[in-house]
Amino acid sequence: MALFSAAPSPLRGRVRVRTLVYTRWIAVVGQLGTVLVINFGMDINLPLVPILLGVACSAVLNIQVTVHRGLNGWHSDRGAAAFLGYDILQLSWMLYLTGGLTNPFSLMFLVPATISATILSLRSTIGLGLVTFASVSFLSFHHMALPWADGNLILPFRYLLGIWVSINFGVAFLIFYAWRVAEESRIMSDALTETQFALSREREISSLGALAAATAHELGTPLGTIALVTKELAREFPEDSEHGKEFVLLTDQVNRCREMLAQLTKNPHQHLDATNSQMSIDTLASFIADRHPKDGIEITIANRGDGQPPLVTKTAELVHGIGNFIDNATEFASTRVEIEIEWDEQEIRLTIMDDGPGFPAGIVDLLGEPYISTRSKTGRMGLGVFVSKTLLERTGANMRFFNRGSDRGAVVAITWSRHVIGARCTDAK
Question: Which residue in 189, 319, 380, 389 could disulfide with 368, CB within 3.0 to 4.6 Å?
């Protein structure tokens, strides 16, 4: 059984049935109301039978979808695209009967395209955009005259051409703009989900470490009692007696258990709980670096501050955030990774430097954004830096990424304000 479950992947291109059904009901009510007001209130004769037939088809289809799918069901990306595609064709039918592009309501072509751009895939959105383009182009040349109080209204072709251009350009612009904004929102949502998963995983690992240390401590007393009783019994039963070999074996196994428990508690800060434990910033850096060793890479830690290193609260955010940057540095380094820690009365600064090739010039200013990777050929998602940066910023850190001036290598500079991170000197009483 896996210790941790995978981070949930957001469902893309799926739309709740209720959303599109309610949108279509709004269109049905709006179309019916508009037709009745114009035909009876403004005394303009419309072809009521085919128009009402188009409105009725939308209403019947809505009822059918509600009955068969349920309002709490979900449309697939393809199903939602078909749903919106019908709305475009139904609107085209209504406009065909009432003047084509000369009808002011031709502006409603923008609605399905905008909805698609915000919730559907790019492929479906482009497909609906092409359907809209074809419909608008058809209506430019083929439509019934626009009914008017004094007869049919005929507009010049140049004016119709202007409407055609404005609608198509409006659809194209809204598709690009709405899809881009929605895609950025989806990317950020996915990345934050991954960040939350990484934080949860780090906390579970820390909890397991604390549980192991606590268990080792609690088992020490009863195991010591067992060892003492076994030793006394072994004196009464020599090794050459009937049960002597059994007591020798029992003594060996007890000693083995004590050695295993000693291994769990050999490093005094290795299994500290990640929550609400205080340690100096250099001890924390050493603890994190020990978790990311790599053969052939030397990791050095240097203190550059005056006096005793400040104490900080060891949290999952710090452990995972700093740890990921150290891990990246060891992966790209040629021979060494240097960690420098500086502090004064106002700030704490932790700098991670390697002697590798450095950050690529084209992405150094983009580091920290989701899905930006320096290892695009490895198939990685490019979320590591974003996750680490987000977690460290939760602790009040400011981040800078740059390359070393004369030497080769990348530099990650992390700075905290002393009052934000809640640090104090180790010699404080």
Answer: 389
